[in-house]
Every structure is written in C-alpha cells, then in structure tokens.
Amino acid sequence: MKSIDYFTNVYSHYRAPLWKLLIDSKEVRFNFFFSKKEFKGIEISKYNESLRLKPRLVNISLFGKIIWQLGVVNSSIKSKADGLMFLGEMNLISTWVSILICKVKNKKVFLWGHGIYGNESYLKMKLRLIFLNLADINFLYGNHAKSILLENGFKKEKIQVIYNSIPSTSMNKGYGENTNNNDMKTYEMFSDDILFVGRLTRVKKIELLFQAFEKAKKINSKLRLFVIGTGKIRSKLEKNFSHLNKSIFFLGAIYNEKILEHYISNAALFVSPGNVGLACIHSLSYGTPVCTHNNMSFQMPEAEALDEKNSILFEMDDVDSLVDSILRGVTLKKKQNTSKYCKESVLKNFTPENQYRLMIDKINQVL
C-alpha cells in the first residue's frame, strides 16, 4: 500500500470526519503529524494517540507571521513514505526546507491549502507561485484559485480541487455532542430574523452589518439580528447600538451543535459582511441562504457554493447595497424549495466523502 506523511498545524475539530476516512483508507496509508497545542484559535478535536496520529510538532512564530514547525524537517529526513503532504502556506519556512529534502530523496510533494487568492501584491504573488510550483500536486479548496494558477502557467495535471467540508448534524450524526451551552436559553426565531456567526472583529466587518441592520430596520420593523460569537469590539457595538437592544441579541460563543442548529436552521438569512468561509457551508447545510459580498478575490473558496438560488450578494463594503440585500434576502427562504436547494448545494461537493475520493484518486494517479 502506498503511504503519505501529512504535516499540518493541529487536528482541527471540523477536520475529524475527513481524517477518520483517511485513517481508515484501504487504498493509501496516512500518517498525521501535528501539534497538541491550539493554533490561531482553531478548535482542536479529541483524539487517541496511535502510530497513525503523531502529535510531535511545535508551531513556533518567528517575526510575527513567519512560522517554523519544529519536528517537520527531522521527520521529513526520516520519512519512509512514498509522498509527503504539507500545508500550502508559504510562511511556513520549515516546509520550504522539507520540500527541498523531498526533492533530494525523490519523494512526491503534495500541498494542501488555498493556493492563491488573486488579491496579493506583486511580490507576494510571485513568491506564492514559486512556492506552489515546488509541489507535484496542489490540493485546493476552490476553482477560483485553480483558474489563477492555470493563467500563470501551471499544468492542470498538477492541480486538484478538493473543496472543503464541515461536519454538521444534518450530514454527520454525532458531531457536536459536547455539553457546552446545554443550559443556555434559546430564543424563538421568526421569519424576519437574520443571523451572524463569527468573531466580532473589524476583519469580519461586523460594524458594516450593524450599520446596515439599523437602516434596514427602519424599512422592515420586524427585522431582528442574532449575533453568535465574541470579540474585541462587542462592547463597542453594544454601546453604539444600544437603542436597538430589543432587536439585537448578543448570544456569545456557542459550540454546542444542537443549539447552533436551532439558530441557523430557523434564521431567515445568514449574513457575513466580510468574507465567508466554512460558515456559509454550515448555514447551507441547515437550509438557510447566505448573504455576503460579491468580490471573489476577497472571498474564501467556500463562497463558490453560492448562487442565485441559495444566496444574495452585495457590493463589497457598500452599506446601502447590504441594506437592500438584507431586505430582499429575508424573503428568499420563504420561496418554495429554497431550503432543499441549500442543502443539496452542499452535498454536491462540500462533504468529507467527496474530499476523500478526490484526494485519493489524485494520489493514486501520482504515486
């Protein structure tokens, strides 16, 4: 059986179903190398240490965004696998070194990540293209990145889009059975309620949503906004929009999937004023349409799941466009078959099973 050593940052919670498929694979043997410690706020999944799961790496931040993964280079030197897979992030200096080791040892190199966004500066674009071109295969989350790589001379044989996935209860029973927030009060949801789930930071452009909600509320008085998540600017938002405290509900961080299912499945519209990633897959999997901006160069690849039947897009950073999209968006779910189509748009590509099949087939072609 062919084998792959996969080096990543942590065993993230949402990756658990896909990792299980890879660990149980009868076609390719996977060994996972990762860190025990939380990384960049990513929720870590529970695991039992085994010969296949090797929590031996240490993520060390150097000069801010540059990272050295202690243990990757040494393990790459000792590796007896047919191919080695790394995170497709060029700021991991240890990965550059390990790829050169693979070239000397004549090992196949796989990179798994976003690839390229299209909004990079000239220098960052050139460096990223050089880095990605070192791989034999680039596993990408979306077709937008693939098209940019093809435009820059990459051979299509070196690229495989494998999408992304999230294990919600609508597709994976048993996920999210932790007890956090079990005693939390849940509010009844109505047909004009909108929802935001994410960190309350300026990066997420949450203030834009609040400004738009205030304007939209003057037109549709039934609108209510539910906010799930925590962040540095929560207190500022509560203060600046205190006059809307009967229409805006700050629910804090929620990790219990059953409670999340209640809010997502019953909301009229999921709104992400900045970029939207796996959150849109989460929303669609529960049958709720998504509202986000229309600039794919500043979007996450999961936004490729969106179309006119399951979402409504606004002009990026335009508050009036967002107001109009919210007012029209709350009517979208009321249309016949919208929720059904939302779920189907996820099941088409964005499942652990589909990711597994696409990845394994490409590995078998190369090894």
3D structure, described in words:
The structure is a single chain. This protein is α/β, with parallel strands linked by helices and 367 residues long. It folds into 2 domains: 2-165 and 351-366, 3-Layer(aba) Sandwich (Rossmann fold); 193-349, Glycogen Phosphorylase B (Rossmann fold, 3-Layer(aba) Sandwich). Helices cover 34% and strands 20% of the residues. It contains 12 helices and 15 strands. It has helices at 16-23, 72-78, 93-105, 122-133, 143-151, 206-219, 234-240, 257-266, 278-285, 319-329, 338-349, 352-366; strands at residues 2-10, 28-35, 53-54, 58-62, 66-70, 83-87, 108-113, 137-140, 159-161, 193-197, 224-228, 248-252, 269-271, 290-293, 311-314. The strands form 3 sheets. The protein has a 7-stranded parallel beta sheet, sandwiched between helices. Strands 12-11-10-13-14-15 form a 6-stranded parallel beta sheet, sandwiched between helices. Helix 7 (234-240) links the parallel strand 11 and strand 12. Helix 1 (16-23) packs across helix 12 (352-366) and helix 6 crosses helix 10 (319-329). The chain is elongated and about 65 Å long. Mean pLDDT is 91; it is low at 169-179.
